[in-house]
Design goal:
Length: about 300
C-alpha cells in the first residue's frame, strides 16, 4: 500500500518570536519561515502549540499566516492551527485561516473538556465541513487529556477533507493498526519516534526539532524513502541528543532558546510559559553541540 503525503514530507510547527515587550517580532516571523524553507521543509505549520497559539489573538494568528505566506511564496505550503476546545470558535478560526490564505488546517483534539468519542468525531466533522481546506487531525492525548480512538480515526478518515493525522500518541502499535485499517497519511508528531513511525507506514514529520536539525531530518526522510534504512537510522541516532534536549522542559521554551543560540530570532515567550533559565540554556547548548548543531 502506497500512501501519498498530502503536505509533503517535512513540516515544522514554527515558534512565534516575541520581542522583549512580548509583541510579535514580525521580521523574526519572516526570517524563521525562510530559515525553515532553506533547511529542507515542504510545509510550515503556524499557530500551533509550539507557536504559542493559546496566547496569540485571532488577529495575530491571521497576520502570522499572511507574513509566512509572503516569506515562502509558492515554495512551501502553510498549514494553520485552527483547533481549540470549543467547536464554534474552532470553526471561526478555520474560516479565518482560509481567508488569510492558509493551504490547510491542523486541528487538535478538544482539550480539558474530555468529550466522548462521539463529541470528538462531531468536532472534527464540523471543522472539516466549514471550509474547503484539507484538515490534518492532531492526536496528542498527553496534552489534551483524551485520545482519538482508532475506530474514530478510521471513520473520520473517510471524510473527503480530512487528509492526514499528526500522531503524537506515543503508541506505535495503535498507529500501525490505524494505518492498516484506514490508509490515512500519518505524520509523526513526536521527534524521537520519527523513525519508528516511518517503519510502520508514516509519510513524514510535523517536527519541532526541524528548527534546529531540519537538514538531518530531510536526509533521514530522503534516505528512508530511497530504501536506505541504515542511513536513516544513522541520522536518527545523530539527532538523539537534540530530540531529548529540546524537551527537557516545554518544547517552545527550549526551541526559542536554541534559535537564539543559533543566531536566529527565537525571541521570548508569553506567560504562562517562561524563558529558559541560564542553567537550562547551558544544558541545551551541550545537547545541541552533541547533535551536531552549529551555534552562533
Amino acid at each position: 500500500m502506497t500512501i501519498l503525503p498530502p503536505f509533503g514530507r517535512l513540516a515544522t510547527a514554527m515558534v512565534t518570536p516575541f520581542k522583549k515587550d512580548l509583541s510579535i517580532d514580525w521580521d523574526g516571523v519572516s526570517t524563521l519561515a525562510q530559515h525553515l524553507l532553506s533547511t529542507g521543509h515542504d510545509t510550515i505549520v503556524v499557530n500551533g502549540t509550539t507557536g504559542e497559539a493559546p496566547t496569540t489573538s485571532d488577529e495575530e494568528k491571521d497576520q502570522i499566516i499572511k507574513v509566512v505566506l509572503e516569506a515562502v511564496g509558492p515554495r512551501a505550503k502553510v498549514i494553520a492551527g485552527a483547533g481549540n476546545n470549543e467547536t464554534s470558535h474552532s470553526v471561526e478560526q478555520a474560516l479565518r485561516a482560509q481567508k488569510a490564505g492558509a493551504h490547510g488546517l491542523l486541528v487538535v483534539t478538544p482539550y480539558y473538556n474530555k468529550p466522548p468519542q462521539a463529541g470528538i468525531e462531531a468536532h472534527f466533522r464540523a471543522i472539516a465541513d466549514s471550509t474547503d481546506l484539507p484538515v490534518m487531525m492532531y492526536d496528542i492525548p498527553g496534552r489534551t487529556g483524551i485520545a482519538i480512538e482508532p475506530d474514530t480515526i478510521v471513520r473520520l478518515a473517510e471524510h473527503p477533507r480530512i487528509a492526514a493525522l499528526k500522531d503524537a500518541k506515543g503508541d506505535v502499535a495503535s498507529t500501525s493498526w490505524v494505518i492498516k485499517r484506514s490508509g490515512i497519511p500519518v505524520y509523526s508528531g513526536d521527534d524521537i519516534l520519527n523513525l519508528p513511525l516511518l517503519s510502520v507506514g508514516a509519510v513524514g514529520f510535523v517536527s519541532v526539532c526541524g528548527h534546529t536539525v531540519g537538514p538531518q531530518l530531510r536526509e533521514m526522510l530522503d534516505a528512508w524513502f530511497a530504501g536506505n534504512s541504515a542511513r536513516a537510522l544513522e541520522m536518527h541516532q545523530k539527532c538523539l541528543p537534540v530530540f531529548t534536549g529540546t524537551f527537557r522542559t516545554q518544547g517552545a521554551i527550549l526551541t526559542k532558546a536554541a534559535l537564539n543560540l543559533m543566531g536566529l530570532p527565537g525571541g521570548h515567550t508569553r506567560l504562562p510559559l517562561v524563558d529558559a533559565t541560564p542553567e537550562q540554556i547551558a544544558q541545551l547548548r551541550q545537547d545541541l553541540i552533541a547533535g551536531g548543531v552549529t551555534l552562533a
